[in-house]
Amino acid sequence: MRKGIGVITALIILILVAVVLSSVIKLSFLTVKHSSDSYMGERARIFMQSAIENSIMAIEGYDRKKHNNCLKHLYFTDEDNRFEANVSVLRYYCYDMSDCPNCSIAEKIATDKSHGNVVLKVVVESNRSNKRNSGYIKIQKITLQRP
């Protein structure tokens, strides 16, 4: 009788150890996945800030009078081709409308303190064709900037 109880006890202990080990492996997999997703999300937010700053520089360098219109859309990719940023200029705020000729998104303002401000809509998406991306990320932000 004792030999049968010993075998059953050993089997129960082995099953309990297997359940604990599988739980630990599952938890470690979830931790790695969460760390990877957090890293990619933070990298996307940093790339978004870079896209905003590059947009401001492009708007500053764009001669609206020479081209007889205003800059409305910009597109950026990061150096690893992991993220793409689509920047749309939603509104230009101009005190002197001669600075914004033929610009359908320009709005006249009453004070020169806000002259040149722009409203940008920035959408950053992970590139699905890049095999190094672990998942799909899309973040967007609407911001008022002063070039």
What does this structure look like?
This protein is an alpha+beta fold and 147 residues long. Helices cover 44% and strands 25% of the residues. It has helices spanning 2-61, 64-67, and strands at residues 73-77, 83-94, 106-108, 118-126, 138-145. Strands 1, 2, 3, 4 and 5 form a five-stranded mixed sheet that branches. The longest helix has 60 residues, at 2-61. The protein is rod-shaped, with a radius of gyration of 28 Å. The mean pLDDT is 88.
Estimate what percentage of residues fall within beta strands: 25-35%
Helix content: 40-55%
**Mean of the pLDDT scores?**
88
Structural class: alpha+beta
- Supply the number of structural domains: 1
- What is the β-strand count? 5
Whole-angstrom Rg: 28 Å
Shape: rod-shaped
Termini distance? Answer: 87 Å
- Unreliable spans are none
Largest sheet, strands/sense/barrel: 5 strands, mixed
Elements, N to C (H/E): HHEEEEE
Question: Count the helices. How many?
Answer: 2
